[in-house]
Amino acid sequence: MDEELLKYVNYKWIVSAIYREEGYIENNCTEDDEFEQDFFCTVNLDHMITILEGNLEYQMFDKQKLNNIASAMRYFIQKYEHDKDKESKIASCNRILDLTKHPKGKPIKHFYKEEYKIRNQEPLKRVTPDIKIEIDKQLIIDIKYLVALTRLSDKIPVGDVEFLKSVNIFIYEYPKIMMDIHIYQYLLYILKENQKYKENEELQRLNNSLLDYFNETEKKDEELHNQACKQNIFSLLFNSDLERSLTALKESADFFDQTNFDILCEYIIKNVETCMFDDNIRSNAKELLHTFISENPNLNMKYSLNELKISLNVHENKEFKEKNIKFYRHIGKQYRLYLPHNDNLMLQRFKKVINERISSTAYYLLKILSIEEDYGSISANPYVANYINYILDNYPLIKENPTYLDNIEDILIENKYWLQYNVKDVASIKESLEIQKKIKKLRK
Length: 444
Known about the structure:
With 444 residues, this protein is an all-alpha fold. It has helices spanning 3-18, 24-31, 33-39, 42-52, 63-80, 87-101, 109-120, 129-150, 161-173, 181-194, 201-237, 242-249, 258-274, 279-295, 305-312, 318-334, 344-369, 384-394, 396-399, 402-423, 426-443. α10 packs antiparallel against α11, α17 crosses α18 and α20 (402-423) packs antiparallel against α21 (426-443). It is elongated, with a radius of gyration of 28 Å. The chain starts with a helix and ends with a helix. The model has no long low-confidence stretch (mean pLDDT 93).
């Protein structure tokens, strides 16, 4: 299981234990050493501290659950108070014990209202004792459903309303779960099977809501895939070593398909109006065009070869040069780079830098869209913040997706450490921090 997903499963497990009856945690610890070891692991203790310190903005545990936590902490402290190997955990338990007396955050009613709204996909006006009991039960059984989901259990929970409520909270708390193709397909199968239970109105309402979410997700994924294909072609056009890239691409028969060819042709035709291709980029476009045609003779031509050639045989007159500079200035701003003045030497340097940024952007975009990515190597670059700013400005679907924002934040954190220890450039570090602030604003 993916490490991040395992952490989420573990979090739901400790919540389930805390929401059970008084003495549940201590009794299980007494009878099962593995339970004790798992519950009092450092990650869980840190997680409890974070929650009690107000990380959720509102309190998550009522008086009874706080008593359950406090009782469990006292059990561990008394059992291991003389064990030097447990000193760190004892300190955490004491911190948790103190926080249970005065937990931080808004009143717990806000927690129950939010839980109800997410699970039931409808707002709640007032938290009643019955609602509280209902949510408490769901918080206990979440772990059962989550384990079944992550293990793709043969005992498929079809026709189960409570399962759908748990799925709603899983997607809200851990949206990355939807990026696991096996879990995604497993859930989709259940939702389609649930359509047979037409007599259960609540089941159908929740099921239809999730099906709408899945349909919307698929549309957005398809759109992002198309945008990534466009960025890949665009980046190739500005590549300073296209021949080397094409040699590698020829090993992949999938690249020279109709979709990528159509994208290339649209860029070539579009260039007549935008003048974004100067001489060396037009040379790349010609080479790329001929490689497509030679690699795949079955391509359909939306534009004739003559039309495409005319679009690339541009005379660089005054109007072209002005439009070309305008293009570079515009795209430069998206990389947070600015052309101070138009003298020829400065302009050529500026263009070279922008060409390099464009040619590498597809690589960064694909990394952000990937799952289970180690961001160590991708973050070892002083211009990471430039690439990410461009992607945030040009890909609104990424800005809307918390999973991709998480990936970007992970890259930026790695990049900040790399900059501090390798480049030690104040401007680059500041740039990275500014993009992190930009992401925090997007989350609000």
